[in-house]
Amino acid sequence: MTDQNTQHPLAMLDSTRAFIAAPRRMLIDGEWRESETGETIDVINPADASVLCRVPGASERDVDLAVRAARRAFDDSAWSRMKPTDRERLLLRAADAIEAHAREFAELEALDNGKSAAVAEALDVSMAAQCFRYMAGWATKIEGSTVDASIPYSPSNAYFGYTRKEAVGVVGAIIPWNFPLLMAAWKLAPALAAGCTVVLKPAEDTPLSALRLGELLQETGFPAGVVNIITGYGRTAGAALAKHPGLDKIAFTGSTPTGKAIGHAALDNMTRMSLELGGKSPVIVLPDVDIERAAEGVANAIFFNSGQVCTAGSRVYVHEKVFDRVMERVAAIADSMKLGPGLDPSTQIGPLVSARQLDRVLGYIDAGHAEGARAIAGGARGDGTGFFVKPTVLVDTDHSMRVVREEIFGPVLVAMRFSDTDAVVKQANDTPYGLGASIWSNDLAQVHKLIPRIKAGTVWVNCHSLLDNAVPFGGFKQSGFGRELGRAALDMYTETKSVLINHA
Ligand code: NAP
Ligand code: MG
C-alpha cells in the first residue's frame, strides 16, 4: 500500500485513512470474506486516477453464498421472529450510526466518487441517515385491511376476509456510483423495515461507503445474513445476482439498458422488480422569471454532482423573450465554477467518476460539435490527471442530435428556445425517458396547465432534483417502474396475502 500521506495531501480523518489502508473484504453471512477466486478490483480515486485500495471481485459462487445466507436469515433466524418495534429500533440505531460517522462517509464518497465532501456530508449522508430513520417508522405501520365478504354462491356461510402485508423475502439490490451511500440506504432501509433480507451489490467504481455501512450495520445488531454486501463487476456478480432463482425481489438503480437486461433475467424467475433508470430531464423556463434566479436554478439543475444525477436537468427550454439573457448568465456561472478534488472545500465541481465516464462524456461533446452544436461554456476536459470535464453549455441544438436525445450523465447542458406552451410540452416529452422535469415561473395558471402535461415521475417548480424521504420517487416511460421513498416504497418490499375465514 502506498503512503496515503503523500498520495492525498488534502486533510482527512484518521478513520478514513485507516479504512482505505486496511484490506477490504465483502460481507457474507456476517463474515468479512475474500472472493473465493481471490480476484480483486482496484478502487480508483477519480481526482488523480490513483489506486485507493482493492476490494474483492465476487464470483457467481460468492453471489450464491450470499443469496443462501440471506435466505437462511429470512426463513429461520432471529430476524424472522423479530417484532416490528425491534426492527424499528435497529433502523433507528443505524440512522444514528451513519450520523455519528457523517464526516468519514463524506470523505469516503469524495475519495471514491469524486464528489465534494462538504456537499456529501450535507446531502448524501444526512439524507441516507434520514432514510433509515424515516423507514424505521414504517416498520410498525405495515397494515392490511379487513373485508366483510358476501360471497353469493355460499349464502349460508359467513366469511371474514382480511389482508396481510408480508415481507417479500430475499432482495437483491444493485446500485450505481453517483450517490453510493444514499442509493444503498434507499434499498436497504425500506427492505429492512419490511422485514426482508438483502444482498447488496454496489457499483464497481464506488464500493467503499457500502462496505463501511456494512460494518456499522453489523455493530448495530442486525443478525448475520440479514445484510450481505458483495463487491464485484456488473457483468459477472451483478448478472449472477439478477438471475439467481433464490431471490424474491430485485431492486435496481442505473442505466436503462442494464435495467432492461436485469428485468429480462428477473422475469424468467418471476422475481419481483423495481427499476429506477435513466433520464433526460427537461427544464422549462417561462418568460416571467427573474433572470438571475432562473439562471442559478438552471446551472444547479445540470452541474450538481458533476451532472451525474439521474434527474439532472440536461435539456433546458427557455422562452425566446428571455433565452439570450438566461443562457448568458448560465454560461457565466459555468465558466466561474471551480474544478477540484472532493476533499478541497473550495471545489464546486468534482471529477467524473471514472476514465470510462470521462471518455463517454467527452465523446458526447465531440458528437455535439460534429452535429453543429456550439459551446458557449466549457466543451473540453479539465486540467490535471483527474477525470475532470469543464461545465459545458451547448446551444444551436435540436432534437435530431444525440446530445439532445441521449443521457450523457455529465456536466453537459443543451439549450433550446421556445415560443409557445404547446411547442414546449411537445419538446419536453419528446424523449424515451420520463424521470423528472422542472418549471421555472411564478405564473400559477401556466404552471398548473403544464404539470399534468409533462410525462415525468416528478415535476419540480422553481427547484430541481430536490428529494424528500416522504415523497415517492420514480420514473414514467423508460425511466423505469416502481416508486422508492414515501409509503410507496413499502409496496416494493411486501406481498399481499389474502385470508378468508369461514366462521358460520
Ligand atoms: P449501469 O451499467 O447501469 O450500472 C449500474 C449498476 O448495475 C452497477 O452496480 C453495475 O455494476 C451493475 N451492472 C452492470 N451491468 C450489469 C448486468 N449485466 N447485470 C447486473 N448488474 C449490472 O451503469 P454504468 O455502466 O455504471 O453507467 C453507464 C451509464 O448509465 C451512465 O453513463 C449513465 O448514463 C447511466 N447511469 C444512470 C444512473 C441513474 O441513476 N439513472 C446511474 C448510473 C449510471 P458495475 O458498476 O460493475 O458495472
Ligand atoms: Mg472510485
UniProtKB/TrEMBL annotation:
Belongs to the aldehyde dehydrogenase family. Transmembrane segments: none annotated. The active site is at residue 276. GO terms for molecular function: oxidoreductase activity, acting on the aldehyde or oxo group of donors, NAD or NADP as acceptor. InterPro entries: Ald_DH/histidinol_DH, Ald_DH_C, Ald_DH_CS_CYS, Ald_DH_CS_GLU, Ald_DH_N, Aldehyde_DH_dom. Pfam families: Aldedh. Keywords: Oxidoreductase. This is Aldehyde dehydrogenase. Signal peptide: none annotated. It comes from Caballeronia glathei. Coiled coil: none annotated. It comes from the Bacteria. Residues 32-499 form the Aldehyde dehydrogenase domain.
